[in-house]
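[Q] Does anyone have a clean structure-token version of this?
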Amino acid sequence: MKQNPFPYSWWTKILGLLIITGGIISFFLQHQKKGIFDFNELAAGLSWGLVFIFFSRERTDDEMIRSLKFKALARALIVAFSITHLYNYLFLNWRLKREHDILLSISAYQFLALTLLIATGYFYYLKHQTALNAGE
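[A] Here you go.
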């Protein structure tokens, strides 16, 4: 018996969307309440929701879908790591006066949210391209 590498059922995408919506609402409520933009809170909601969306099964789950998800995740990891590294290099290595300038390194939640956002978008792009090519 082959075990599916994606542990969540296809309907958990709805749970992921609810978590993302809750994270966005919480982000804006926090801004109204305290007057700050807490991007780590937003990234936490995005990353948890995208985990459920990306790692859930598709309705038609086969070897091709698994291959597309792996390809999307592998490329997204490289792109997100490059973006994170460039951001940290360009903005955190300059001689800033730490008393006045507030620039923070990208957190793990932000990196995970960026990676999963790229992977999810790229997966659905690849899936759409595959469907177009199969229809020709």
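[Q] Thanks! Anything notable?
[A] The helical segments are 12-34, 39-54, 63-92, 108-135.
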